[in-house]
Amino acid sequence: MIKIAIMGYGVVGSGVAEVLSMNHDIISSRAGQEIEIAKILDLRSFDDSPYAELFTKDFNDILNDKSIKIVAETIGGLDPSYEFTKKLLKAGKSVVSSNKELVAQKGDELLSIAKENNVNYLFEASVGGGIPIIRPLHSCLAANKIEWIQGILNGTTNFIMTKMIEEKLSFEQALLLAQKLGYAEKDPTADIGGADANRKICILASLAYGKHVYPHEVHQYGIEDVTLADVAFAQSMGCVIKLIARAKKLENGKISMMVCPAIIPVSSKLASINDVYNAILVKGNAVGEVLFVGAGAGKMPTASAVIADIVDAVKANNTSISQYWAPSCESAVSNYREDVIKFYLRLQADDVEAAKEFILNNYTTPIILSRLDQPENEIAFKTDFMLEDDVKKLTISLTEKGFKQLSKIRILD
Amino acid sequence: MIKIAIMGYGVVGSGVAEVLSMNHDIISSRAGQEIEIAKILDLRSFDDSPYAELFTKDFNDILNDKSIKIVAETIGGLDPSYEFTKKLLKAGKSVVSSNKELVAQKGDELLSIAKENNVNYLFEASVGGGIPIIRPLHSCLAANKIEWIQGILNGTTNFIMTKMIEEKLSFEQALLLAQKLGYAEKDPTADIGGADANRKICILASLAYGKHVYPHEVHQYGIEDVTLADVAFAQSMGCVIKLIARAKKLENGKISMMVCPAIIPVSSKLASINDVYNAILVKGNAVGEVLFVGAGAGKMPTASAVIADIVDAVKANNTSISQYWAPSCESAVSNYREDVIKFYLRLQADDVEAAKEFILNNYTTPIILSRLDQPENEIAFKTDFMLEDDVKKLTISLTEKGFKQLSKIRILD
What we know:
Helix content of chain A: 25-40%
Shape of chain A: elongated
Radius of gyration of chain A: 23 Å
Distance between the termini of chain A: 52 Å
Oligomer: homodimer
Number of strands of chain A: 17
Number of helices of chain A: 14
């Protein structure tokens, strides 16, 4: 029998207790021994909970309990999770975590502390909720050089984009619906602005490329400016718009990192991933493209991933099985200005013919687009591959010419 | 540095050597040490190979070489792989295998021998080629009771069905094309008849439910009788026809096992899996539905999976990390006659009105279907849920009435 603790009794933490109880027999049999919750840390009181007597408000009750071997950190955020996790690892306890923010910011350090202390720091639940992705990337695809990873890593934004594409709701209407259904928080900034997806792609990139990649190194845009006009133009190209997170190894050895709304063809394996589902598409140089799809969030799926890590930590029995990556180094991530990419641009122009002429003269082989109900003063087009930096320069010159830029979205085809 | 051997230098075996060389540095770094091929067993000679001097025709050269710790079995079939694998495991060597036939027939015994000898028997490559599925099912979904597994597990038949659906090729034309492109063997029986998919779903079911399931316990049909008329009727229902392998836990605790062409709605996550791609959809009681997609066969993807197992065996370093399942027991698999399922039936009837009347009187809420270019003497319909046994009785009574049964396909919606 092995004793564990849960820190943070919110959605995920209470889910861990619930799934451990619901699937008790099969989990024990797979772990090779009984798993017992010894303590639960939360600042709130849960007097009616079946676990009421296990609750403590004092972290030291867990830290100093030598019988507790594994701790599930489901608090989230950096403070106090970072200090708690360090102390637990140094005390010889394995930590399993659903905390993407902490892993994305401090993963290299915590993995290294775990290794030194011969315990494990595992975080399957930090990316893609219940979708198995950390372990497959780390273990099942070990024979591969990872060429790129492309993912739909945020369920809230995917729900919003699905409603915009399929039901022609505006961004604002779709966000309201997501909030009504509990898919978006009251303050949805981290989701719709791309910060949540950013943390997750950083974790995947660090794992795939063996060097810590920080969220601030990622070129990040949210979906808040995507309009139904953009959705319609994308459709006219046989495409859809999704919030895509991408890590890509460039020929110069650097990693290109990007989180942004992107236009992808309907034939892409990611195009049909709808509603709150998440998906991760990995390209390995031996295996080709492999796709993982599932619920990217939610109480039970995320708890399922946390417990998979607990079972692995039990089986590892004080040998270090964690993944490992090195600290960040300055030159690992490429400057986004050097990325070469296709763009879709939508402009407002009083003189559409003049705009068209300017575009045809200044962009490499642009394709002018059209859509139903297109206003007379609107013009949209897609470019060929261009340097991000050149696109920037050209959009500035468009503004100087008096054409108002309405939309600028990357095309991944 | 760790020494390995490869047995069988065919497509997969030579792929293992090729990927080990191509991705040498990254594989060594992930394994924690250099992996060196010490011997290759094949009855043929490969004098021009860069590995020419490693070849042997004598299995004992590998068995008796104490420096070899891990052996990749890529021979296939039962004989001599079964005897070879037993001897190697008993000699304290781990074996990694792409041999689905052997795992499906002897998995329980070989896993148990591996456990006794504190070595590992791993077979990620036996199902779904390069798609990570064995390890995710075993490890990442450890917190779940698996409700069912549904898969497209054979690339050849999926290619054929795709060509029938998208390009309206007949079964025979599509098979010829598959053979021309190297996707189907000269004797395609094991693929189109369902035996290959059968072995794979047996491995997944054994793993998910902890008891060995044998291929002869599975209700197996191939795609050879599927016609373009059936494809058209499926389309009229908003569905496609795919060769589906399914393992499902019934409420009575038994496992229902089935490999057959099945009509699935286009909204199913499996409907858009086309060409030679494979996919496995797993329903866990905590995680919900999780989908895995990738190349289900081919030299490099399969080699990628074999090497992932080699890396895991290296890291396990003489501790047993293998999955484990118990020997089969008589009552584990349900009799297919007790399955309750919807059917599509297509008949030839000189008197269509009489056939229609008979159907409406004898089936529970049948729905009569129609398609373009439907011959006057053809009638097709779908039933509500029925016992397989009752369907059998009714098709016999249809024949007795003089209506000729042209098609009978299961509906999974």
